[in-house]
Design brief:
The protein has four helices and no strands. It has helices spanning 2-24, 31-57, 64-84, 93-110.
């Protein structure tokens, strides 16, 4: 389950970063703004796809909604936690969130 969750999460992060970067093209004038959109997109899509990957690999599939909720909560906490640090290192949030989301998804899916 962890391999499936991590793989789908990484693919989702890449797709979310591409989408976020594309959205920023019409809204941003500097690289920092574009970066913020890309990493926020990566965090959002990773938050959705990590629990879906765990759910797909689970032979006894249940509790997807609870897993998605916990994953979204973890992503939100890490996003705003990173924003509260001076310098706003939002770039690290998707990479810190993925293992937490995977752990919570596996725990929720297997109980």
């Amino acid at each position: 389950m962890s391999k499936s969750g991590m793989f789908l999460g990484i693919v989702g992060m890449l797709a979310g970063a591409a989408i976020g970067s594309g959205v920023s093209q019409g809204k941003c004038d500097d690289a920092r703004c574009t970066s913020r959109y890309a990493f926020t997109g990566a965090l959002i899509s990773g938050s959705m796809l990590v629990p879906i990957g765990v759910h797909i690999a689970n032979p006894d599939r249940r509790r997807l909604v609870s897993s998605l909720g916990a994953s979204a909560l973890a992503g939100t906490v890490l996003y705003f936690g990173m924003r509260s640090i001076p310098g706003e290192p939002i770039q690290i949030a998707p990479f810190l969130a993925a293992p937490v989301q995977m752990f919570t998804s596996i725990k929720i899916e297997t109980r």
